[in-house]
Design goal:
This protein has 458 residues and is of the alpha/beta class. The protein folds into 2 domains: 175 residues, Aspartate Aminotransferase, domain 1 (Alpha-Beta Complex), CATH 3.90.1150; 251 residues, Aspartate Aminotransferase, domain 2 (3-Layer(aba) Sandwich), CATH 3.40.640. It is 39% helix and 13% strand. The strands form 6 sheets. A 5-stranded mixed beta sheet has the order 2-8-7-6-5. β3, α5 and β4 form a beta-alpha-beta unit. α3 runs parallel beside α11, α8 packs across α9 and α14 packs across α16. The structure holds pyridoxal-5'-phosphate (PLP). The site of pyridoxal-5'-phosphate has 15 residues, from α4 and α5.
Length: 458
């Protein structure tokens, strides 16, 4: 039997959560059109919709909130953040942004021209969209193992260097303005990237004179995986590993809503002074002055403190192992999940869980709905509702290979008891899974339909 990870903190402020009676959940779900995005958060017992912006801040961060200096220019919190960015990442040039996608928007608007191609292990949806909106094409060059549900590869987020070289020497010749690498690979299940792979991609980039950047949202979780899975790092601190990782890149974008341990915030850092000058000009135009970038002084302070706290080995080890604990409990109960478990979420294979429901009837969404009906738990569908496409000429529907539900774990928010409750609820659903039926779409808009679609049980 797996053992729960033990929280390396005690609780000082509590936020009540309520489990409504089953009949009430049934009627709330019906009102929400069987789409959990449309539920009110207050009607949810355990909310695993996302790990983004949902972290609990520490007493040190809350104390920092009271140290907010709300001067328009040159507030003290900016200089604290500057010290942190230098100490943690070794970068001098950076700007704060209100969240990650603002950093992407500013960077890509500066360097991407129509016809450009941008490789990544796997682009996050806002990253890909920001590249497309500037006329570029995002391409995913993750290793093939990333697409295997039960692979045991320790670094499923690695980029395939052969695929990259083939692109740079082939159709991408002269058309690649930047190479990105997402640590950990969110769209691929929170899978880590090895130090060896970072070095190898950096060498290829340097050989071609192309800037190499991280999409760095989960840098500390990635560093923890390097420490525990890659030879030569078992004695290194998380801070040392992070420093080394960032020594190989020319810049990075970051949503601090993940490993920054804050509810809002982002960063954009580059080595190139001239590029930084242009970034500062654009920042002023769309986010705010260079020393606040769309955030209040107090937010800068919370981010500065969060970026240091996340390096604590006790914290990050608990974090990754708490997510793994949930995965292990499901595996032990015969529920098929994507392995190895990534840094921030557990993904359940809905095709295996509900083999009697065809993809045309949204098995993953059926499981998401039942998880709320059974236990007041919110998860998110990553399957046909999110990704199925219709061929405009033939009208034929193309279904995604993977049909999953994602249980994303907010940082420092839920205890192991909550995760046991989630596991027990899923195990109960599994024991009567043959009773679950499929769903149909009643109303949907084309793009990103999963956010707003209305569904009904068949
Ligand atoms: C969350 C995320 C982003 C976008 O950040 P926001 O703060 O949501 O704008 C970009 N890349 C990755 C890998 C992410 O997880």
């Amino acid at each position: 039997m797996s053992q729960p990870a033990i929280e390396p903190y005690r609780i000082k402020a509590v936020e009540p959560i309520v489990l409504h009676p089953p009949e009430m959940r049934v009627s709330l779900m019906e009102q929400a059109g069987y789409n959990t995005f449309k539920l009110k958060a207050q009607d949810i017992f355990v909310d695993l919709l996302t790990d983004s912006g949902t972290s609990a801040m520490s007493m040190n961060q809350w104390a920092g909130i009271m140290m907010g200096d709300e001067s328009y220019a040159g507030c003290r919190n900016f200089f604290n953040l500057q010290d942190t960015v230098m100490d943690v990442f070794g970068f001098e040039n950076f700007v704060p942004t209100h969240q990650g996608r603002a950093a992407e928007n500013i960077l890509f608007s500066m360097i991407i021209k129509p016809g450009h191609i941008v490789p990544n292990n796997m682009h996050f949806d806002t990253t890909g969209a920001n590249i497309r909106s500037n006329g570029g094409t995002p391409v995913n060059l993750v290793i093939d193992e990333s697409y295997e549900v039960s692979s045991t590869h320790p670094f499923k987020g690695n980029m395939d260097p052969n695929k990259l070289t083939a692109l740079l020497d082939g159709e991408g010749k002269g058309k690649v303005p930047i190479i990105m690498h997402t640590i950990t690979n969110n769209s691929g299940g929170g899978q880590p990237v090895s130090m060896a792979n970072i070095k190898e991609i950096a060498n290829i980039a340097r050989g071609k004179g192309i800037p190499f950047f991280f999409d760095a949202c989960r840098f500390a979780e990635n560093a923890y995986f390097i420490r525990t899975r890659e030879e030569g790092y078992a004695q290194s601190s998380i801070a040392e590993i992070v420093k080394e990782m960032f020594s190989y890149v020319d810049g990075w974008t970051m949503s601090a809503k993940k490993d920054g341990l804050v509810n809002i915030g982002g960063l954009l850092a580059v080595k190139d002074d001239e590029l930084m000058g242009n970034i500062r000009d654009t920042l002023i135009l769309i986010e705010g002055y260079v020393t606040y970038g769309g955030l209040a002084g107090r937010d800068l302070e919370a981010m500065s403190r969060g970026l240091r706290e996340v390096l604590d080995l006790d914290y990050v080890s608990f974090r990754v192992n708490q997510v793994k604990y949930l995965g292990d409990r499901l595996t032990e109960a015969g529920i098929q999940i994507i392995t190895p478990v990534g840094g921030h979420a557990v993904y359940i294979n809905a095709k295996d869980f509900l083999p009697h429901i065809p993809q045309s009837e949204f098995p993953a969404q059926a499981l998401v709905c039942d998880l709320y009906l059974e236990g007041g738990i919110r998860a998110v569908e990553v399957g046909s509702l999110m990704f199925a496409t219709t061929n405009p000429e033939t009208g034929e529907v193309v279904y995604p290979e993977l049909e999953m539900i994602r249980l994303a774990i907010p940082r420092r928010v839920y205890t192991s008891t909550h995760l046991d409750y989630v596991a027990d609820t899923l195990i109960r659903i599994k024991s009567k899974s043959h009773q679950l039926g499929g769903y149909k779409i009643v109303k949907a808009n084309g793009l990103l339909r999963h956010f707003t679609a209305e569904m009904a049980p068949l």
